[in-house]
Amino acid sequence: MTALTLDRLTKRFGATTVVDDLSLAVPAGSFLVLLGPSGCGKSTTLRMLAGLEDVTAGRIRVGDRVVVDPAVGVDVPAERRGLGMVFQSYALWPHMTVRQNVGWPLAVAGWSRDARRDRVAEVLADLEIAALADRSPAQLSGGQQQRVAIARTIAPRPDVVLFDEPLSNLDARLRTETRALLGRVHRETGATTVYVTHDQVEALALATHIAVLRDGRLEQLGPPEELLERPATAFVAGFLGSPPAVLVGGRTVGGRLVRDAVDLAPVPSGADAAHAMYRPQDLVIDPGGQLAFEVLESTPAGGAHLVTGLLGGADDARGGDRVTVIADRREAPGRTTRLRVPAAPAALYGTDGALL
Ligand SMILES: Nc1ncnc2c1ncn2[C@@H]1O[C@H](COP(=O)(O)OP(=O)(O)OP(=O)(O)O)[C@@H](O)[C@H]1O
Fold it and tell me: MF terms per GO, please (predicted)?
């Protein structure tokens, strides 16, 4: 199995830095999800790994082998990096059948006819598309085409597989099905996987490790549970999870974090706190609560209701923070009520966004 190492990787397009000094160690066999808002540099990072995008500075290692290091003139071409890649668009060869599409990379790699036949049959069965072997891509649905693309990529048993939002063109039910299939393929092949998405559920379902990126920089890397339990920054806290943690902004006054004259928590001495973090299930919609709350929408979810609203209410000149809490009943949009916060927040974050 093959580990991946990104060492101070940087990518600039003209004067714009889109990946900024990014270092990541991806253990062999892990499933790393690159997660972050649109434009944070996820796809660019994956494309640099794949060899589809030049690197401005830094180094990439696949196992023990340096595949890119502009400082010493190393740039191994994409096809010689030992990586397989699955894109958002399926890009199957239209004039070949499913069987031929999946077998082609094996032929290119010099597999014998018998070994090719056996391996193609195996991956088609694994991806539950054996019955489609003699069809052409035009005779397949989008979901089936994506399974063929995945089969074609894993057929040569690459040590590392890269995925760029492979499920984003599928409808909700197919996404769930194909997601489960991808998890199974990963468990069976053990291939080190790097997977780009901005879908929280996909990330949390598949990842052994998540790297949250923001403006081309790494905010936090770790197992999903660790990032959810102990977000290192206010950004990660407010981004990860469905719904994410609730961040209540305030100012440090006399050693206390205060919002709209409500005392939220003591601040460690010498620190300057800017946010208190709470779990969405720990805040209660209650007319007797401390903070004004204007309900924007209420969505049923798994027997509870996700209620999104603005903290501070319409009378708050600062403008409210948008937060989502888990409530036991529906709230009417447009209603102004109040939110009761627990005596102690789950965490505090400083003015620089770091965990205090
Ligand atoms: N060829 C290019 N020339 C100039 N800027 C580019 C180029 N490719 C990407 N960018 C910019 O780099 C930034 C990062 O893009 P990238 O596609 O890596 O983001 P992303 O996190 O994958 O976003 P998304 O989730 O929307 O796909 C964006 O601001 C994008 O506009």
Answer: ABC-type ferric iron transporter activity; ATP binding; ATP hydrolysis activity
Taking only the tens place, the pLDDT of each residue in 139-186 is 998 888 989 999 999 999 888 999 999 888 888 888 888 899 899 889
The β-bridge relationship of strands 65-69 and 74-75 is: antiparallel
- Position with higher pLDDT, 4 vs 143: 4
Tell whether ligand 1 has an atom less than 6 A from the beta carbon of residue 14: no
Burial class (CB in 10 A: 0-12, 13-18, 19+), 106: buried
Does the beta carbon of 197 sit less than 6 angstroms from any atom of ligand 1?
no
The set of residues, in sequence order, having a beta carbon less than 8 Å from that of 62 and lying 6+ positions away, is 2, 4, 81, 82, 83, 159, 160
User: What backbone phi and psi angles, to 5 degrees, belong to 233?
Assistant: -135, 160
Mean pLDDT of 129-140: 94
204 Cβ contact list (under 8 Å, min separation 6): 210, 224, 228, 241, 242
Cα–Cα distance for residue pair 298/8, rounded to 1 Å: 43
ipTM > 0.90 (yes/no): yes
216 lines ligand 1 (CB under 6 A): no
